[in-house]
Amino acid sequence: MYYSKELAIMQPPPPGREEAGAARPLGNTTKLWSTFDDQLNRRVARYILQSVITEILPNERVAKCLRLVVPSASGVRLMYSPEVQRAHYKNLTVCGSIWNCPVCASKISERRRLELRSVLEVWPGGLIMASYTLQHSLDDTLSGLKNTLNDCYHKLMSGRQWQEIKNRWSIVGLISSSELTWGPVSGWHPHKHALIFTKNKLTNDDLKSAELEFSARFRALLTKNGRYGHPAYSVNFQVGNISQQTDYVCKWGVDYELTKSNIKKARSGNYSPFELAQWAGVGGDLQPVRLFREYASAYKGSHQLQYTQGLREILGMDKNKSDYDLATEEDQEALVIAELARAVWSIVCKQNKRGELLEVASSGSANQVFDYLQTIGAV
Q: Do the beta carbons of residue 307 and residue 57 sit within 8 Å?
């Protein structure tokens, strides 16, 4: 494999470095990547990546997401929101998967980020950004690492000892999320992120003392599970500004914007899950396909963002919405600028023009939409 920092995208291995006998795993979308560069619109890129993942996971809901017209509709509506000057689709099936779908993940994560940011701006107490991980190798399965990490994390926050820790550091509650990368040297690297809300603001000395206490307890739990946590890396505490704290737990799908400078790129040559899918879309290697399928299986049904019991009420937040609810929310002020017959929509999908069509529709001009559909032979 080969990672191009200049293009910030995954490239096929250079000649002579491809695995012997490797066959191109994906047939319908790989040709799209020939024009995939730094100038490609982020939303267009997400739709292309979703098409790649559809080939990797043909039996999952993502394969129908924003492709299949709902049975009760005669066609697809193009909606335009004047306030934000963006277009979106209506009358299409939506998967609502933050793990498998880059389109839904971006929408879900952004809405959760905005919700949390409004709370953090008025929180009077302290906030700690905490991360938890464990030692791993190429021999480890993702499901095994994920289960051990989650088990130790939840045991860390249970029992009498946890109640003592909560009282000592005036902990009100936590918001946790999961993040994952894969690397050719050490394999899968799952880690937990958490925002710890404290009643009182902690000094730098307090922060260090709390980190040492959490680390000792967490590493002891790992040891009981037959795993190892390095004293310097298994637990890390820090304090950031509101933007950093919000993005810390709400970045899945937001940070991964494929071609822009604000991408959360995996470090040291590692790949995030969506980068694995991108690698599968441009390479001639089956490895990223196998890896992405392993990842999708391990995280299926998992929650990406979790609040401890009662914290949302303490923070004055409304009832927590599901990922699906957030993915299907619509702008009630949006206007219909075009209706596409099923036959027209079928051509748009076959040509992988869903993202491009949205960008044209974001002009708010029905005439530009019609002209574009003519250029691709849809009308």
A: no
Residue-wise pLDDT for 89-125, tens only, equals 999 999 999 999 999 999 999 899 999 999 999 999 9
d(CA 251, CA 138): 26
Q: Are 259 and 8 in contact (CB under 8 A)?
A: yes
A 10 A CB-CB count for 326 gives 19
Pairing status of strand 126-132 against strand 187-198: antiparallel
In terms of Cα–Cα distance, which of 122, 212, 131, 135 is closest to 168? 212
- CA 234 to each of CA 197, 288, 357: distance values in angstroms, whole numbers, following the listed order: 20, 27, 46
d(CA 233, CA 54): 36
The distance from CA 180 to its chain's CA centroid, rounded to whole angstroms, is 10
Total Cβ atoms within 10 A of residue 160: 7
| Cβ within 8 Å of residue 262, ≥6 positions away | 255
Tokens (6 digits) for 169 = 């550091």
The answer to whether residue 336 scores a pLDDT higher than 80 is yes
Classify 311 as helix, strand or coil.
helix
- Measure CA of the first residue to CA of the last residue in the chain; give whole Å: 41
Residue 152's SS3 state is helix
Is the separation of the CB atoms in 266 and 121 below 8 Å? no
* Phi, psi dihedrals of residue 317, rounded to the nearest 5°: -95, 155
